[in-house]
Automatic annotation (TrEMBL):
Keyword Signal: yes
InterPro entries on file: Bac_surfAg_D15, BamA/TamA_POTRA, D15-like, POTRA
Region forming the signal peptide: 1-29
A Pfam family the protein falls into: Omp85
Protein name: Beta-barrel assembly machine subunit BamA
UniProt KW Transmembrane keyword: yes
Keywords: Membrane, Signal, Transmembrane, Transmembrane beta strand
GO-annotated cellular components: outer membrane
The organism's place on the tree of life at top rank: Bacteria
Cell compartments where the protein resides: Membrane
Residues annotated as domain POTRA: 33-105
Length: 598
């Protein structure tokens, strides 16, 4: 029904009423006849009952009222089945019969939805309830079209509108043609930046100015920005643009504190031993999204230094580059059976490692990234510094079977799929992350040993409420081949089974956690105070099983406990965990470090 027909219908109603009042029957407050009957003429396919059902203002037995009759005529037209309506009255006994004369729309033959590029019109036609051969109803069609466009918006993220709002017509041969407009992005505006360069956000966006709006893609871009962990909040919104048929995209961001000091301390309540690290990192160097860190460790048995730099966008293809350099000077307990076959005793050894690692990464698909890593490391075990683990005296073990100063070079591949969602820089509230890491060390790389190491890991988070999240990590790792004793896997420590010692030869129980393959599970229930989002409480349970290298067989261990997380400016998230393991006599452990467990 086009605009002209609607205007003609309104004019007809007014003219008919005026003529009726002036000529047919004088209607005044004193002489208004009583309405005795309603009738409908002109309808061939629309049932009279449906038309009469739209009459709600004029009642049988009431005096004839012009305003009420006019309202009923509008109600009949609102059914959408008619292009015109007239009114006449006929004298009936001592009252009148009110007759509504209607002109039906043509029967529906075809629906044409013009202007669609992102969705097929056949998919939207399923929302239209009128069938071929039905009398066309503009009202029903308009309601069905609204449902179809709502489906596009909520399911496909598409914002589609009729080009001419309200003008829905059917041709004489029964064809309904509706021209639709797929709304586009106007300007992309970023607000709230102080340190971060605008390009850091723009390069993460898949949307471009002038593209057809896809709100699902916009939400994915929002998550990509949050995964940078440079912001405590990002709020995207759409605003009507000055560009026709377009909406501007506004990103309101709140920058996070990305520079932090880090330290970690562990204290065994049963043995009194203390260990830890100290460092500084900046996750948004010069506002370019680059990461730089310096870690130092100076204790009675360790003097370590490590420097790392990471560039996430080396070129337009999102190539990443990372470099790490380190020098470690450690004294610790380990076996030396690789150099002295048949000797299973553990000694107190001195190990010096100096190394360089280079990594290059590229996207492998949506949310998935592959990284190749090259590592070059020089190891030195001074034989004159080997001490007996029982009395601490220097021992001479004779000539080693292999050099004690050697290269340990490797090449590795990592593939990670990241679908984590963040409320802010530090609080994960949903999603998952899957990763696979495989590295090979070999003599063909200039090293002394041939071995392989692989790790599979998955993290899953489920939000019960905005501040209550259940997190689970599953990790499996194995090492095989000819590798140094101290490169055997260890299942204890603050980032695995936190209820057990960080040092693998600390006691007989920790020795049971040394092996060549393990499975690990960590579960945490995290609750962040709504009134103070810097404070978080944690209940945790850790469990793992490892094939034991020393005693043979396998060992299953577990621990449980409670913890507190507190976000301190310029320091980061402080982690304090009290863990109890299930082995009698091993005591409990207080873990003090920076950052979440996983």
């Amino acid at each position: 029904m086009n605009l002209f027909s609607r205007i003609r219908g309104i004019v007809t109603i007014a003219v008919v009423l005026c003529l009726m009042l002036a000529l047919a029957y004088p209607v005044t407050a004193e002489t208004s006849p009583t309405v005795l009957m309603f009738d409908v003429e002109g309808n061939t396919r629309v049932p009279a009952e449906k038309i009469l059902g739209a009459i709600s203002n004029t009642k049988i037995g009431d005096p004839f009222d012009v305003r009420k009759v006019e309202a009923d005529m509008k109600s009949i037209m609102a059914l959408g089945y008619f292009s015109d309506i007239n009114l006449k009255t006929e004298k009936m006994f001592d009252g009148v019969k009110v007759v509504f004369e209607v002109v039906e729309n043509p029967t529906l033959k075809e629906i044409q939805l013009i202007g669609l590029t992102k969705v097929k019109q056949e998919e939207l036609k399923t929302f239209f309830t009128q069938k071929t051969g039905d009398v066309f109803s503009a009202a029903v069609f308009r309601d069905d079209l609204s449902k179809a466009l709502k489906y596009c918006r909520e399911t496909k993220g598409l914002f589609i509108e009729p080009k001419s709002e309200g003008q829905i017509s059917i041709s004489a041969d029964g064809v309904v043609r509706v021209e639709l407009v797929e709304l586009k992005y106007g300007k992309i505006v970023i607000k709230g930046l102080e340190k971060t360069k605008e390009s850091v956000i723009l390069r993460e966006l898949s949307i471009r100015e002038g593209d057809i709006i896809n709100y699902n893609e916009l939400k994915e871009d929002y998550m990509n920005i949050m995964r940078l962990r440079l912001f405590d909040g990002v709020e995207p919104r759409l605003e009507k643009s000055v560009i026709p048929n377009s909406y501007d995209v506004i990103f309101e961001v709140k920058e996070a504190q990305t520079g932090s000091f880090s330290f970690g301390v562990t204290f065994g309540q049963s043995d009194g031993k203390v260990g830890g690290v100290l460092g500084y990192s900046e996750g948004n160097l010069m506002g370019l999204g680059q990461n730089i860190s310096l870690d130092l460790n100076f204790s009675e048995s360790e003097q370590n230094a490590q420097f790392s730099f990471y560039e996430p966008w080396l070129d337009s293809k999102h190539t990443s580059f990372g470099v790490s350099m380190w020098n470690t000077d450690n004294n610790f307990y380990s076996t030396l059976s690789t150099w002295y076959p048949g000797d299973a005793k553990d000694y107190y050894i001195h190990l010096i490692e100096t190394g360089l690692s280079l990594s290059f990464g590229r996207p492998l698909g949506k949310d998935t990234r592959g990284t190749v890593r090259f590592s070059f490391q020089r190891d030195n075990i001074p034989t004159g510094d080997i001490l007996d683990s029982d009395d601490g005296n220097s021992v001479s073990l004779g000539d080693p079977a292999l050099p004690t100063e050697f290269w340990d070079n490797s090449v590795g591949l990592n593939v990670t799929k990241n679908r984590l969602s963040y409320q802010d820089r530090n609080f994960v509230d949903g999603g998952y992350q899957l990763s696979a890491d495989y590295s090979v060390a070999g003599r063909y790389l200039g090293g002394e040993f041939n071995y392989q190491k692989g790790t599979l890991e998955g993290k899953w988070f489920h939000s019960f409420s905005p501040n209550l999240v259940l997190g689970t990590r599953l990790q499996g790792s194995l090492v095989s081949g000819d590798y140094p004793d101290y490169d055997a896997l260890y299942l204890g420590g603050m980032y695995k089974l936190r209820g057990y010692a960080d040092q693998r030869f600390d006691n007989n129980i920790s020795k049971q956690l040394i092996g060549d393959q393990y499975l690990l599970s960590n579960t945490e229930l995290r609750y962040r105070l709504p009134s103070n989002k810097s404070l978080e409480f944690v209940v945790f349970y850790d469990a793992g099983q490892i094939n034991n290298n020393i005693g043979g067989g396998s060992s299953f261990k577990s621990d449980y406990g409670i913890g507190i997380r507190y976000n301190i400016p310029l320091l980061g998230v402080l982690r304090l965990d009290q863990a109890w393991n299930t082995d009698k006599g091993d005591g409990n452990r207080l873990v003090f470090s920076l950052g979440e467990m996983f």
